[in-house]
Design brief:
The complex is a heterodimer. Chain A is built from 37 helices and no strands. In chain A, helix 10 runs parallel beside helix 12 and helix 12 runs antiparallel to helix 13. Chain A starts with a helix and ends with a helix. By secondary structure, chain B is an all-alpha fold. Chain B has one helix and no strands. The longest helix of chain B has 48 residues. The chains are: A mainly alpha, B mainly alpha. Chains A and B meet through helix 13, helix 17, helix 19, helix 22 and helix 26 of A and helix 1 of B.
Chain lengths: 750, 58
Amino acid sequence: IAAIDVPRDQWPDLIQILLKNVTESNKSNLKQASLQTIGYTCELINPEILASQSNSILTAVVNGAVKEEPNQEVRLAAIQALTNSLEFTRVNFEQETERNYIMQVVCEATQSENENVKVAAFECLVRIMQLYYEKMEFYMQKALYGLTIIGMKSDDEKVALQAVEFWSTVCDEEIALAVEIEEAQITNSEVPVCHYFAKAAVNDLVPTLLLLLTKKGMDDEDDEWNISMAAATCLSLLATCVEDDIVGPVLPFVESNINNADWVYREAAIMAFGSILEGPNPVNLYPLVNQALPLLVNLMKDDITQVKDTTAWTLGRISDVLPDTLKNEATLHSLVTVVTEGLSDTPRVASNCCWCLMNLAEQLEPEDLEVNITYPLSKYFEGIINALLNASQQEQANTEINFRASIYEAMSTLVSHCSKDCLPVVAKLTEVTLQKLDETIMLQNQIVNIDDRLAHHELQANLCSVLTSCIRRLDKDITVMSDKIMTTLLNIISSASKSSTVLEDAFLAVGALSAVIEGGFSKYIESFVPYLNIALQAHEEYQMCSIAVGLVGDICRALNEGVIPFTDEFMNHLLEDLQSSILHRDVKPAILSCFGDIALAIGSNFVNYLQIVMVVLKQASGMEASPNDYDMIDYVNQLREGILEAYVGIVQGLKSGNSAGEMASYVNDIFAFMHNIHNDVEKTEALIRGILGLIGDFADAFPNGELNPLFNEPWISEIIREGKRMRGSISTKEVAKWANQVNNIIFLYN
Amino acid sequence: YKATFYSKTKEEKQEERRRRILEEQRQKRSSLVNQARKLIEFSIQNENSENDSDSEIE
């Protein structure tokens, strides 16, 4: 109730009432309930709203959290409320005396006899470190360092988990700071302060983390968070944070335990090695990885599943972050062999093998897919695809849906990144995939059980996704199979249930096919459009609708004027979509861009829709975001990009049909819109690029000086200069050059 | 912990894919638009050089 009433100022005395309960009542239950209420209220309500009451809230919660509080339940509720209120008590935290007092209360609570209080106090320290890193130097030296290192060794797993989390948070903050420092140095702005806590603590942290890695049992599930997982995460963050400094303290543990008879130590050694692969200079890691690879390959044959699981993950990490270590043919051969064999292991191991293959496919991808005939995976390609197909047929692939998804994702990735000599295998895979899809269609009426139905939808979605990759990779070579592909896809689409994502995946496959066969798509359009029109009206399933909008654009690009017989219906649905209050707002910028796609395709025929579209675009142009609403700022920028893309498509489309003059009465509004964006401090580079392109398009569409007064306005030359100066983007500079060049010509001749 | 592509939820993966597709469509659109612009630039340059050679003859 508070979450609804307080922001509307309809319960102004709530915090005072709760405060009174905490400070004046001697009833423990009432105190505890009031503190919990404060905690939940703080958690739910925007910090800005409660900032004015931060003093009262802090007084109440700190009062309940002190060590003198006899009731531990009250103390627990107080510390939890303190954690939730930290975000809007920044003013108090800025005051040294107040900060000292809060820190003292929290640190004392970490020493409580009560386990829950202790855990809550460590949780509170994690939050403090997240929010007030810059103020922590003094407290780290005096207390936090010691408290947390001891906390990590606690027999109580919950305490140890929070103490490890504290150091993971330190690393998170320092990793983010490293990026900020780098950016500040480039832009010559103020460099933020980093205290390098992780660097100073690395020698104390690593032995404890390595010890915690060994705290695991044979029955530990992969999806339950435990101390060894927390330690692995922390070690990995520490490696990113302290870079080369991690190698020295970790390496002896890896060397002495990688062949340990006790599987727990063996697994911990592999985990430690896999965790430090990102952060240190790759040049320093190459010799270590080269030394470890033969051992890791052997460990894929270990008797213990957990060991194989972590080994497969480590091989995946090596393939992902240090692919240069695999340039040696013999090394690559042994790696590909073990991970391909691993596909028939338990789903846990096999999923990591799929991930490893995905990484190999991406990292070893030929430089130019259209030019390079071969690549290092060519000779294994058919074997890997067959092994993946075999794995997909295994019983466990049917029971473990996520594993099956992994198999198909690996297949899609391999197809998308292969060289030309693998295309015959891709063609064969396309046929197999179509056959499998046909089989699923025949089976679907026999499925009654809801879980089986979900698994069935998932399988169809996975197969459609592989099919999309095959279509894109085979490019024009797919033409011979296009009739069969469209027949299967239309069957899938016509029988797909509303609740599944199959339709989305099938539409994406249709989009890929239209992009490849272009005009050849015209023979399927009549049969396909009815389904597309239904999807365009799916206001409640906005993701489906969004894909349908994108597909209209794809079809326009494929068919150009061939799309004219269908544009009336498309335009009606798109305009209805824009007016819908149910349809998610995220789809709307794409709809505006889609107007541009239609205009580009049908040229002067767009005149029929010009008036209504211009009204809609002008309405959308009026949308503004308030300065602190970052989500809205982002959304308005996306909307503006959509509007600019629509204008560009319309101007270019009409010009190509010699009808640019039809735009004349709208030009002033459009320039006012662009000028408004130019004055906005939140404008993105994409918007600058869009404006520059449109200025050039207008100059080209009105070559007889009709728009010279508009081009003469000072902001035009300002934005062209701004575009040319853009630091990173070549494309923005090019568009600026385009606008400038076309403008200069116009002025020269007028 | 052992972050892999598979640690992402199905929804996250789908969202990622949707974003990628939107971006690809945006790129296709802009490449079409840029192609048209390049042609215009080319004809402007041609016209310029013809004008230059005309003036030389004069």
